[in-house]
Write a structure and sequence with these properties.
Length: about 250
Protein backbone atom coordinates (compact mmCIF):
# COMPACT_ATOMS: atom_id res chain seq x y z
CA UNK A 1 0.00 0.00 0.00
CA UNK A 2 1.30 3.44 -0.92
CA UNK A 3 0.65 6.11 1.69
CA UNK A 4 -0.91 9.12 -0.06
CA UNK A 5 0.85 12.48 0.03
CA UNK A 6 -0.86 15.84 -0.13
CA UNK A 7 1.87 18.43 -0.70
CA UNK A 8 1.32 22.19 -0.59
CA UNK A 9 3.41 24.31 -2.93
CA UNK A 10 3.09 27.85 -1.61
CA UNK A 11 5.32 29.15 -4.42
CA UNK A 12 6.49 32.78 -3.87
CA UNK A 13 3.73 33.63 -1.38
CA UNK A 14 3.44 34.40 2.33
CA UNK A 15 5.43 36.69 4.56
CA UNK A 16 6.62 35.33 7.91
CA UNK A 17 3.54 36.06 9.98
CA UNK A 18 1.17 34.91 7.20
CA UNK A 19 3.13 31.69 6.71
CA UNK A 20 3.15 30.96 10.41
CA UNK A 21 -0.59 31.64 10.69
CA UNK A 22 -1.39 29.34 7.76
CA UNK A 23 0.92 26.60 9.03
CA UNK A 24 -0.64 26.89 12.50
CA UNK A 25 -4.16 26.58 11.10
CA UNK A 26 -3.18 23.56 9.01
CA UNK A 27 -1.48 21.99 12.02
CA UNK A 28 -4.48 22.60 14.27
CA UNK A 29 -6.86 21.01 11.77
CA UNK A 30 -4.88 18.10 10.32
CA UNK A 31 -1.66 17.92 12.31
CA UNK A 32 -2.34 14.50 13.78
CA UNK A 33 -3.39 12.72 10.60
CA UNK A 34 -1.48 9.49 10.15
CA UNK A 35 -3.03 7.70 7.16
CA UNK A 36 -1.67 10.26 4.68
CA UNK A 37 1.37 12.48 4.59
CA UNK A 38 1.00 16.23 4.51
CA UNK A 39 3.97 18.22 3.26
CA UNK A 40 4.18 22.02 3.40
CA UNK A 41 6.58 23.61 0.91
CA UNK A 42 6.88 27.31 1.77
CA UNK A 43 9.47 29.74 0.37
CA UNK A 44 13.04 29.46 1.69
CA UNK A 45 12.67 32.55 3.86
CA UNK A 46 10.00 30.99 6.07
CA UNK A 47 11.11 27.35 6.15
CA UNK A 48 12.51 27.69 9.67
CA UNK A 49 9.49 29.57 10.99
CA UNK A 50 7.09 27.01 9.53
CA UNK A 51 9.25 24.20 10.90
CA UNK A 52 8.85 25.66 14.37
CA UNK A 53 5.07 25.62 13.99
CA UNK A 54 4.73 22.04 12.70
CA UNK A 55 7.51 20.53 14.82
CA UNK A 56 5.33 18.39 17.07
CA UNK A 57 2.84 17.33 14.40
CA UNK A 58 2.83 14.71 11.67
CA UNK A 59 3.23 17.41 8.99
CA UNK A 60 6.48 17.35 7.01
CA UNK A 61 8.50 20.21 5.57
CA UNK A 62 9.63 20.58 1.97
CA UNK A 63 11.55 23.17 -0.04
CA UNK A 64 10.67 24.26 -3.57
CA UNK A 65 14.12 24.01 -5.14
CA UNK A 66 17.82 23.65 -4.31
CA UNK A 67 21.25 23.69 -5.95
CA UNK A 68 23.08 20.53 -7.05
CA UNK A 69 26.28 21.32 -5.13
CA UNK A 70 26.60 21.07 -1.40
CA UNK A 71 28.48 24.32 -0.87
CA UNK A 72 30.60 26.84 -2.71
CA UNK A 73 30.61 29.97 -4.83
CA UNK A 74 27.02 29.92 -6.05
CA UNK A 75 25.68 33.30 -5.03
CA UNK A 76 21.99 33.28 -4.25
CA UNK A 77 21.65 29.51 -4.10
CA UNK A 78 20.64 27.14 -1.32
CA UNK A 79 22.01 23.61 -0.95
CA UNK A 80 20.56 20.28 0.09
CA UNK A 81 22.58 20.16 3.32
CA UNK A 82 21.24 23.59 4.26
CA UNK A 83 17.70 22.35 3.72
CA UNK A 84 18.37 19.20 5.69
CA UNK A 85 19.98 21.28 8.44
CA UNK A 86 16.81 23.33 9.00
CA UNK A 87 14.57 20.28 9.07
CA UNK A 88 13.35 19.70 5.52
CA UNK A 89 12.29 16.17 4.60
CA UNK A 90 11.36 16.85 0.98
CA UNK A 91 12.40 19.06 -1.90
CA UNK A 92 10.41 19.80 -5.06
CA UNK A 93 12.63 19.49 -8.15
CA UNK A 94 11.97 20.39 -11.77
CA UNK A 95 8.72 22.27 -11.24
CA UNK A 96 7.51 23.58 -14.59
CA UNK A 97 7.85 27.18 -13.38
CA UNK A 98 11.54 26.53 -12.71
CA UNK A 99 11.92 24.89 -16.10
CA UNK A 100 10.15 27.77 -17.82
CA UNK A 101 11.55 30.82 -16.03
CA UNK A 102 14.88 29.64 -14.63
CA UNK A 103 16.32 27.29 -17.22
CA UNK A 104 15.86 24.06 -15.25
CA UNK A 105 16.54 21.07 -17.50
CA UNK A 106 16.23 17.32 -17.16
CA UNK A 107 20.01 17.26 -16.63
CA UNK A 108 19.98 19.77 -13.74
CA UNK A 109 17.00 17.95 -12.23
CA UNK A 110 19.06 14.77 -12.36
CA UNK A 111 22.07 16.34 -10.62
CA UNK A 112 19.77 17.70 -7.94
CA UNK A 113 17.90 14.41 -7.44
CA UNK A 114 21.18 12.55 -6.90
CA UNK A 115 22.46 15.03 -4.33
CA UNK A 116 19.08 15.19 -2.58
CA UNK A 117 19.22 11.46 -1.95
CA UNK A 118 22.80 11.53 -0.79
CA UNK A 119 21.84 14.24 1.73
CA UNK A 120 18.78 12.42 3.00
CA UNK A 121 16.13 14.57 1.34
CA UNK A 122 13.30 12.98 -0.64
CA UNK A 123 12.92 14.62 -4.02
CA UNK A 124 9.47 15.29 -5.45
CA UNK A 125 10.43 15.27 -9.12
CA UNK A 126 7.97 17.10 -11.36
CA UNK A 127 7.32 16.11 -14.95
CA UNK A 128 4.67 17.22 -17.39
CA UNK A 129 3.94 18.15 -20.98
CA UNK A 130 3.04 21.57 -22.35
CA UNK A 131 -0.25 22.15 -24.16
CA UNK A 132 1.29 22.20 -27.64
CA UNK A 133 3.09 18.94 -26.88
CA UNK A 134 -0.16 17.27 -25.82
CA UNK A 135 -1.92 18.60 -28.91
CA UNK A 136 0.82 17.15 -31.12
CA UNK A 137 0.45 13.76 -29.44
CA UNK A 138 3.90 14.02 -27.86
CA UNK A 139 2.87 13.69 -24.21
CA UNK A 140 4.29 10.24 -23.52
CA UNK A 141 7.53 10.93 -25.40
CA UNK A 142 8.14 14.11 -23.35
CA UNK A 143 7.32 12.32 -20.10
CA UNK A 144 9.66 9.46 -20.99
CA UNK A 145 12.52 11.87 -21.65
CA UNK A 146 11.89 13.73 -18.38
CA UNK A 147 11.67 10.54 -16.32
CA UNK A 148 14.60 8.71 -17.92
CA UNK A 149 17.00 11.65 -17.90
CA UNK A 150 15.79 13.27 -14.68
CA UNK A 151 16.10 10.04 -12.70
CA UNK A 152 19.05 8.41 -14.39
CA UNK A 153 21.82 6.96 -12.24
CA UNK A 154 19.71 6.61 -9.10
CA UNK A 155 20.03 3.26 -7.37
CA UNK A 156 17.09 0.90 -7.11
CA UNK A 157 16.89 1.63 -3.40
CA UNK A 158 16.82 5.39 -4.03
CA UNK A 159 14.25 4.89 -6.78
CA UNK A 160 11.99 3.15 -4.33
CA UNK A 161 11.95 6.21 -2.07
CA UNK A 162 11.23 8.69 -4.83
CA UNK A 163 8.16 10.82 -5.25
CA UNK A 164 7.19 11.83 -8.78
CA UNK A 165 4.62 14.52 -9.55
CA UNK A 166 2.85 14.49 -12.89
CA UNK A 167 1.90 18.09 -13.56
CA UNK A 168 0.62 18.83 -17.04
CA UNK A 169 1.88 22.37 -17.63
CA UNK A 170 -1.43 23.43 -19.19
CA UNK A 171 -3.21 22.57 -15.93
CA UNK A 172 -0.98 24.50 -13.51
CA UNK A 173 -2.60 27.64 -12.16
CA UNK A 174 -5.06 27.71 -15.06
CA UNK A 175 -8.15 26.21 -13.47
CA UNK A 176 -8.02 23.42 -16.07
CA UNK A 177 -7.56 20.04 -14.44
CA UNK A 178 -6.62 16.90 -16.30
CA UNK A 179 -9.51 14.47 -16.44
CA UNK A 180 -8.91 11.54 -14.10
CA UNK A 181 -8.48 9.22 -17.10
CA UNK A 182 -5.87 11.56 -18.61
CA UNK A 183 -3.95 11.62 -15.32
CA UNK A 184 -4.26 7.86 -14.93
CA UNK A 185 -3.02 7.17 -18.46
CA UNK A 186 0.16 9.19 -17.94
CA UNK A 187 0.74 8.06 -14.36
CA UNK A 188 0.37 4.41 -15.32
CA UNK A 189 2.95 5.05 -18.04
CA UNK A 190 5.28 6.72 -15.52
CA UNK A 191 5.03 3.69 -13.22
CA UNK A 192 5.87 1.41 -16.15
CA UNK A 193 8.99 3.48 -16.86
CA UNK A 194 9.92 3.42 -13.18
CA UNK A 195 9.57 -0.36 -13.26
CA UNK A 196 12.05 -0.56 -16.13
CA UNK A 197 14.49 1.68 -14.26
CA UNK A 198 14.18 0.48 -10.67
CA UNK A 199 12.48 -2.91 -10.83
CA UNK A 200 8.80 -3.75 -10.77
CA UNK A 201 8.54 -4.21 -7.01
CA UNK A 202 10.24 -0.89 -6.25
CA UNK A 203 8.08 0.91 -8.81
CA UNK A 204 4.98 -0.31 -6.99
CA UNK A 205 6.21 1.51 -3.86
CA UNK A 206 6.83 4.88 -5.55
CA UNK A 207 4.27 7.59 -4.88
CA UNK A 208 3.17 9.37 -8.05
CA UNK A 209 1.28 12.59 -7.35
CA UNK A 210 -0.94 14.55 -9.69
CA UNK A 211 -0.69 18.35 -9.78
CA UNK A 212 -2.58 21.00 -11.73
CA UNK A 213 -5.50 23.07 -10.43
CA UNK A 214 -6.45 20.58 -7.74
CA UNK A 215 -9.37 21.84 -5.67
CA UNK A 216 -11.81 20.38 -3.13
CA UNK A 217 -14.21 19.52 -5.96
CA UNK A 218 -11.89 17.46 -8.14
CA UNK A 219 -9.54 15.75 -5.68
CA UNK A 220 -11.72 12.71 -4.92
CA UNK A 221 -12.10 11.68 -8.56
CA UNK A 222 -8.35 12.05 -9.10
CA UNK A 223 -7.55 10.06 -5.96
CA UNK A 224 -9.79 7.23 -7.09
CA UNK A 225 -7.36 6.50 -9.94
CA UNK A 226 -5.15 3.49 -9.35
CA UNK A 227 -1.89 5.31 -10.06
CA UNK A 228 -2.65 8.64 -8.40
CA UNK A 229 -1.07 8.52 -4.95
CA UNK A 230 -1.63 12.09 -3.89
CA UNK A 231 -1.58 15.68 -5.00
CA UNK A 232 0.80 18.58 -5.39
CA UNK A 233 -1.42 21.55 -4.68
CA UNK A 234 -0.57 25.14 -5.61
CA UNK A 235 -3.24 27.85 -5.41
CA UNK A 236 -5.69 25.88 -3.29
CA UNK A 237 -3.04 25.26 -0.63
CA UNK A 238 -2.86 28.97 0.23
CA UNK A 239 -6.27 28.86 1.86
CA UNK A 240 -6.70 26.72 4.94
CA UNK A 241 -10.32 25.71 4.25
CA UNK A 242 -9.68 24.50 0.73
CA UNK A 243 -6.41 22.79 1.65
CA UNK A 244 -7.97 20.95 4.58
CA UNK A 245 -10.87 19.79 2.38
CA UNK A 246 -8.33 18.46 -0.11
CA UNK A 247 -6.47 16.66 2.67
CA UNK A 248 -9.78 15.04 3.70
CA UNK A 249 -10.67 14.04 0.09
C1 LIG B 1 1.80 23.60 -8.62
O1 LIG B 1 2.30 24.67 -8.36
O2 LIG B 1 2.51 22.58 -8.55
C2 LIG B 1 0.39 23.53 -8.99
C3 LIG B 1 -0.11 22.38 -9.34
O3 LIG B 1 -0.32 24.71 -8.93
P1 LIG B 1 -1.92 24.86 -9.02
O4 LIG B 1 -2.52 23.87 -8.05
O5 LIG B 1 -2.19 26.27 -8.63
O6 LIG B 1 -2.32 24.56 -10.43
Amino acid sequence: MRKPIIAANWKMNKLTSEAMDLAREVRNKVGTIADREIVLCPPFTVLSSVKGVIEDSSIKLGAQNMHWEIRGAYTGEVSSVMLKDIGCNYVILGHSERRRYFGETNETVNKKARIAFSTGLIPIVCVGERLQEREKGETLRIIEEQVKTGLSGLTREQGKGLVVAYEPVWAIGTGKTAMPDQAEEVQRFIRKLLGQMFGEENAQAIRILYGGSINPGNISALMSCENVDGGLVGGASLNVESFVKIVHY
